Automatic annotation (TrEMBL):
<protein>
    <submittedName>
        <fullName>Polyphosphate:AMP phosphotransferase</fullName>
    </submittedName>
</protein>
<feature type="region of interest" description="Disordered">
    <location>
        <begin position="236"/>
        <end position="265"/>
    </location>
</feature>
<dbReference type="InterPro" id="IPR022489">
    <property type="entry name" value="PolyP_AMP_Tfrase"/>
</dbReference>
<dbReference type="InterPro" id="IPR022488">
    <property type="entry name" value="PPK2-related"/>
</dbReference>
<feature type="domain" description="Polyphosphate kinase-2-related">
    <location>
        <begin position="266"/>
        <end position="487"/>
    </location>
</feature>
<dbReference type="InterPro" id="IPR027417">
    <property type="entry name" value="P-loop_NTPase"/>
</dbReference>
<dbReference type="Pfam" id="PF03976">
    <property type="entry name" value="PPK2"/>
</dbReference>
<feature type="domain" description="Polyphosphate kinase-2-related">
    <location>
        <begin position="11"/>
        <end position="233"/>
    </location>
</feature>
Amino acid sequence: MFERAERDPSMDEREYERRELVLRTELLQQQYELLKQRDRAVLIVVAGIDGAGKGSAINLLNEWMDPRHIRTLAFGDPSVDEAQRPAMWRYWNALPALGQTGIVFGSWYAPLFKEAARKKPDMDRIGAMAAEILRFEAMLASERVRMLKLWYHLSRGAQIARIDAQLADPATAWRVSEADLKVRKKFDRLRTAGEIVLGATDAAYTPWRVVPSADARLRAVETAAAVLQAMREPLPRAPRRPPLQAARHGDRSRAMLEPAPGGSKLDEVDYERQLARWQARLSEQVRAKRFRKRSLVLVFEGVDAAGKGGAIRRVSHALDVRDFDIVPISAPSDDELAHPYLWRFWRHLPLHGRVCIFDRSWYGRVLVERVESLIPPATWRRAYDEINDFEDQLRRGGAVVLKFWLSVSRQEQLRRFKERRDSPFKNFKLTPDDWRNRRKWDDYMSAARDMIARTDTAHAPWIVIADDDKRTARVKVLEHIVKAMDEA
C-alpha cells in the first residue's frame, strides 16, 4: 500500500516546470467549468502521516486555483456545542454546494485513525466506525458529491529529514508541531494504523489515493492531477450502502392508518383536564436537570387536515419559548437542492436541553417525492436506510426521537376541508395541492405503510394516531411524549 511512497520518488525541476504550467491552466479552467455546470461538488479529504507536507500541498492548490471558490475546512476537537450533537453534525453542516470545492483537514477519519494507532486497537470498534463512514460517503456519492481522499506518506528517514530541516530554519520552525515530532518515535505503529484505515474504508466510489510526499515537486503535481481528475471524470454510479442493522420496533407492514368508524369523542371538560395534566408533566420533564444531557426531536407527518398544527401548538404550550424550535418543512430552496438531501435537516438538530419539532420532515423523500414521481424509484428506495442511519445517529447523540403519523378518515378530511374553505380565519390553510393530494389518497396511504414498515425502529418509533376527534388526538400525542420521555 505504501511501498511506492516509502521509496521517496522525486521529480526534477525541468519536468516540474513543464507539468506546473499545464496543471495550473487546466485546474483553473476546470474550476470555472465546475462553477458553471454545477453537476457536482468536489470534497477533498486530506489525511496521512504528520510532517508529510499536507498543509503545503493544499496551500499550493489555493495558489494555483481561485481561492474564492475553495472552502478549506479544518476540524480539531469538538466545541461544546458540537459535542452535544451527533459526531457527524459538524461535517454535514460544512458540506460544499454543487459547483463548489471543499478541502477537509481533521475529518471524520481522525477518530478512526486514533483508534487504529493505539497499542491494542479494538478491531470491532474500528469495523463499526468504518461502516458508519462508508455509509456517510455512499450517501454523499449518491447525492453528486465527488470525494477525493488523499493520504500523504513518505519514509521514516524522509520525514525526519524534513522536520529537522524545518526546525533549522527560523522561518519554518513554527510549522513543526508536537505531532510531527512524535512520528519518528511511532512511525511503524502509525504506518500500520494507516494501512488499517485505508484498507477498511477504500471503496470504488471513494477510493484512497496515496501521494508520495518526500519531494515537494512530485507531491504538488500528484495532488493537482488528482484534483483535476476528480473535477473531470464522470460521477460514479450510485453505490450500494453498507447496511445498517436497525432494530425493528415491530411488524408494522399492516398498520391501521385510518380511524375505525364510530370512534368516541372527548368532551370539553375532560379534554381540558387531561390536556393540562400531560402539558404539566411535559413541562416538568423538559425543565428537569437530567434533560440537560438529552434533547427531544419530534416529527409530525400525516394526511392533510389531520391536525398536525393543532397538536404542535398544544405541545409548544407546555414549553418555554426559549427551549424549543419549530421547523416547518416545505419544498426545498435552491440552496438546499444544491446540497445532499439530509443537509437541511442536520442543520436544525437541537442542543442538549432543547426540543426541536419538525412540521413535516425528511420523510417527504419517501412520501410526496415518491408519490409525485419527483425522484427516481432507486432514490426513494435507498432513502429508508439513509433515514434509519440518520435517526440512529440522533439517538447516539443523546436525542429522544418520536415520530407521529396523524390521520383522519376521508369523510372527516372532506368535512375539515369545507370548514376551512368557508371560514375567513382558516381558508388560507386550504390550497389546490390539498385537493390534488386528496385525489391520490390511496397512493399516499400505500407510501405511508411502506414508510412505517421500513423505518419503525426501536430507537425512533412511529406512533400512529388515527382519530377523527381532534381533542383525543392532541391528548394522545402529549401522553405518548411524556411516557417516552419517562422511559428514556
